[in-house]
Amino acid sequence: MKKKLLAMLLALSVVLALCACGDADGTPSGSPAASPASSPAAAPSGEPVPSEPTPSDSAGLSGTLEVWSSGEELGRFVEGFNQVHPDVTVNITVVPNADFIAKLTPTLASGQGAPDIFTGESDYVKYLVDSGFWDDLRQAPYSADTSDVWDYVASVGTDASGALRALSWQASPGSIMYRRDMAKEVLGTDDPTEVAALLSSNDAMLDVAAKLKDKGIKMFASWQDIMNMQFSNRAQPWVVDDRLVIDESMLDFMDMAKTIAENGYDLNVDPWAPEWSAAVESTDTFCYVLPSWGYQFVVKPAADTTKGQWAMCQGSVPYVKGGTWLGIYKDSPNKDLAWAFLEYCCLNSEAQQAYAAEYGEYVSLKSADQALAAGAGEEVLGGQNPFAFYNEQMEKIPSDLMTAYDGTINTAFLSAAKAYATGVLSKDDALQQFKDDVANAYPELTID
């Protein structure tokens, strides 16, 4: 089993190298800091910044902790952690996401020089969860209490046997981020609840897209972003009992993508293209369909003349996309230090509130997000509080359907969908291309 997983990880490392600029769906890998816009953000306006946790004289830990991470965000926790554990040195080695698996895999295989903690991005975290290289955090000496963790976050970090292998300090619920001024002009309202009612199905979204087009406005920045929303709401995962499953909702997504492309309902660009990013300030683009990091790292920093003209609402379905999980290496000689740091980042509500208030990132603990939801709203969003909105979405998120195959299969599926949407291939031929790509990557799978 371990050899099979290592082989899969090596295959994935090739895919990540080819997709160095983003996830399989064109969005940044898991954590926002992997995106082109990774500079720290200001604290949400009007929200109190909690004080740092009080240092504990009884902590008594000392030593050096080695952490490998695909992003820089974990480093933001170190100062607060060292107030509690001043004698612990935390060395964080940041390995670019495109190179992360290629570096990690041989290290784990040899057992030499492995970090005490290493991260896993959403596209490949299930490989690591199922690999046996991470300890079970529910067992001694950890005995993790996840009652305050959003269910989805804990579910992703749980393997098939029920062992909790990883936790995250992040959660990434999504929204449709739309322009209030355009909504008023075309739809007669900018109220998030009323706009959501007008976008409550894929057909409804296409109807609105047609109305916007009549006014010279593109509905979407890129149709590719919609895969984020569709992916969370499948009835089945990509692989069940070693068989490839193409959920009906993904076929519907292909048809929706083609309708958008043929009718000019988007900018006809890939995510992170200059035109895509510039659409925040445009006069002809209605919305982005992105997870929580999309607001903090795409819309908020770019909104200047459009400040106050943005809002968030639910689209046809609630969804979640992205995130970074942490696990403790099973053979770490520093498990006490590793647990102290992981617990501080992923289970300490005060630490997460301070982090979220400073950087604006939606976090994994319910109590932290609820505290931040009680603060003032965002100027960019016309006074809407994103934490309050995202809290409602997290209550609706479907069950975790992630598999160890997702990164590679998502890339293959998006490629096929693009070929169909742009008229390069028929739908049948695009689906055959998709199946062939999956068969080449995973010959052990049964593909009908």
Automatic annotation (TrEMBL):
Region forming the signal peptide: 1-20
Span list, region Disordered: 27-63
Keywords: Signal
Pfam families: SBP_bac_8
Skewed-composition ranges (Low complexity): 28-49
InterPro entries per record: Bact_solute-bd_prot1, SBP
Transmembrane domains' residue ranges: none
Protein name per UniProt: Extracellular solute-binding protein
Annotated source species: Lawsonibacter faecis
